[in-house]
Amino acid sequence: MNHWITWSIAAWVATCLPATSAMAEDEYEAWLKQNQPDFQQAQQEFQDYLDENDREFIGFLKQQWKEVEIKKPTVRDTKPKPMAMPTAPPVKAQPRPITPPQPIIDAPISEVKPDTKPSSNVEPTPKTTPKPTPVLAEKPKPKPVTPTPILAEKPQPKPVLPTPVTQAPTAPVITFDYYGHRVSIREERRLKQRFRGRINNESIADYWQKLASQPHQKPVKDLKHAAKTLGLNDWSTALLFDQYARQLHPHDDTSRQLTTWFLLVKGGYNARLAYNQKAYLLMPSKQPLFGVTYFRFAGERYYAVSLNDTPVQTGKAFTYSGKHSAGALALDFSEPNRFAGQGKQAVRDLSFQYQQQTYNVKVTYTESLVAYLNTYPQLSLDNYFSAGLPEATAQQLLSQLRPIVADQTEEEAVNRLLRFVQTAFDYKTDQDQFRQENYLFPLETLHYPYSDCEDRAALFAWLTKSLLNLDVVMLDFPGHIAAAVAFNGKVKGDNWRYNGKTYTVTDPTYINSTVGMTMPNFKRKKPKIVAF
Questions:
Q1: Which of 76, 249, 391, 394 could hold 135 in an S-S bridge, CB 3.0 to 4.6 Å?
Q2: pTM for the whole thing?
């Protein structure tokens, strides 16, 4: 029996004979042998169900696919970072400030809204200081080499303890956990189509036609509603769609990969499929990604974001030339803290000394959010500088640091924030801790036992903007990242001019350094200055 006809009969029966809906797949097969409906009528019903966009897209898929070259990942900085950080010589306390006292304006405690446009570390462009705003799988990041007793083990990007969040539809549903939230999506059993045969353009086109011929609009609508309810950005929405596909195909990677591709396109995303020995999902991004393989097609980069945990290696692959009219959106990784995960809370105790006084800071955070951030591919550095912290954790940290910097000059307040970031966190390179480059969001810096220069600079920049309302830029040296602050008055020390302002060096990795001190190894080097 022709495979298309066999499938058509099964789907027609599932649609027209509700009594068979409880049968297992093998029961369907047995039933079909004894019941032979009109083949042409069944095929005509399914063909009518396809919209014009699907018919056109299936035509693209059936045509000869083009060969593309999957490129090696882009590396942001090939210069190795220092293995150990130097300590600045002690500086005698000044009896009077260099600049007259400036009022400190408390900024809102929420995060800084990142730029929604693609960022670049090659040609920095001036940006206005973003207004603070409130606080969602490429391969998972590796576990740190050395655990710390005050932190739980690094959670994997898998569901955690469920708590009801989304409103369940009245129809039969598939319920799963999404980083602490219990999500219920309408169940459409006929979408659970198993991919059979060899992977090629014909078999992929047939699989799309099978899915498109089934009632799929309601599950897609439920997924988009859940994404909106949870406050997900594009990246976390893609993860949600993939999680639903995992429920449909828990043990079939190829069917799961193709189903995720289908759902994302129907959800409005420019998802593209490529194959060699396996099928791979690739998507364009508004932000440049690092450490991720990609290919160029029609002038656009499609990244192997690996939602299904299957990294794409370099080499040849095949993809189709057309594009489904429903899929237009590129991934947007901005506002990672907009999504509030739920579940187990972790605690981080931090302390630092400044002018013979010890300060203790204690913060709590949701572990599932660390698991979520762990799914992010490497972004350009300005995304980490602008990310900030989740609302609750931000409130805790800022409320404890605010009294420490209150009633101080701008320079003195910045020195205190520098000392906090310099000495409350232990230094270790990403290679030592993770065995690969791994930029950390500020929440991850609070979580992991170690951090390096760009992680500390991102946390310091957010604290300075949030507590002191001062403009900060990043100083991108080869092999090192520092920050620089635009003070309202003159201060002594190393500085750089950028976009009409003077930015004085502030290095949160140079231990015990104060405003204006550049790390000795980079004293004679000119950095790239990047706003965010």
A1: 391
A2: 0.75
